[in-house]
Fold this protein.
Amino acid sequence: MQRNIEFSNLQFLKDSVKRILPNSQAVALAIILIGGYFLITSLSNVLMPVFIAIVLAYLLEGLVKKLEIRLKRLPAVLIVFTGFMAVFSYVLFGLMPMLYQQLKQLLQHTPDIIKSSQAEILKLPEAYPQFISADKLKELMFAIQQEAIIYGQDLLSLSASSVVGIISALVYLILVPVLILFCLKDKSILLSWFGKFMPRDRLLSMNVWAEVDMQLGNYIRGKFVEVILLSVVSYMTFSGLGLNYAMLLSVFMGLQVIIPYVGATLVTFPVLGVAFFQWGFGGDEFMYVVIAYSIIQTIDGVILVPLLFSEAVNLHPVAIIVAILFFGGLWGFWGVFFAIPLATLVKAVTSAWPRLDDKMHTFDM
C-alpha cells in the first residue's frame, strides 16, 4: 500500500514536470529565461553600462540594417554611430542644461504655484459645503504642499552635487558609447561567443525571440516617432501661447507616452499648474492652454497611436496597467520604463509555450 502511494506521488510529480516542461526545447527556454533574470538582477549594479549599451545598440541596429542594403557593415555602423553621437552631444550639452535650468526654476516656484492653487481650491467648500469639508481640504492641501516641497528639494539635490555621482556619470559617458560601437561593429562575433553558453536545442527560444524582436521593433520605432512629434508640436504650441517653461513642458509631453495611461495623467498637473500660476483661472490664455493641451492629447490618442502602432504590441490596456504596476513594484523606475517590453516577452513566451496536446515533433530540429 505504501509503495503504491509513493509510486502515485512520483507519477504525479513527473506529470506535473511534464506539463510545465513538455520537451527539451521548453527546458532550454526556461533555462535561458531564468539564467537571464538572475544575470541581470545580480550583476545590474556592476554591469549597468554594459546593459545600457546593449539596449541602445539594439535600438540602433534597425538603422544599420537599412543602410546595409547599400553599404557594407562597417560604413553603415560608422554612419549610424556618428549620427547617434551628434544627437547625444546635442542632448547632453545643449538640451540638458536648458532643461535643468527650467526644472530648477519650476521647482523653486512650486510652493507658490501650490499656494495659488490652494486659494482657488479652498473656495470649493463655500460653493459646495454639503460635499466638501473646509478643514479636511486644508489638511489635504497642506500634506500635498509638504510632499511637493520635499520631492523638489530631493530632485534638486541629486547626484549632481556628489563626487561619486559625477565620477559615475563620467564613466557612463565614456564607456557606453565605446560599448555601443563595439556591439554594433562586432555583432556577429559577440553573438557567436554568446551562443556557446546557450543550450543547443533552442529553436523554441529563437521563435520566441523572433516574435519579441518583431513586436518590440514596431513598438520602439512608433514610440520614438510619437515622442519626437509630441515634443515638437507641444513646444511650438506652448511657445506660441507664451507659456513659461515651454521647452521643459514639451519634453514632459513627449516622455509621458513612455508610460501609457499613467503618463498622460501625471503631465497634466505641471502643464495646467504653470498656466494657472502664470495667468490664473480667469485669464483667456489659461483657457487657450487647456484647449490646446486637450487637442494635442486627443490627436495623440485618436490619430497618432492607431497610425503608429497598428502593427505594434497587441496588449490589452488592463495587461499594460498590470505590467506597469508589477514591474514597477519590482524594479522601480526601470521596471516602469521597460514594462511594455517585459510584458511583450511574457506574452510571447506564454503564446509559444508548448502544451501537452502539442505534437512532440512540432519543435524538433
Observations:
- Confidence is low (pLDDT under 50) at residues 159-164, 359-365.
- The two ends are 43 Å apart (CA to CA).
- The CA atoms of residues 210 and 255 lie 28 Å apart.
- The first helix runs from residue 2 to 20.
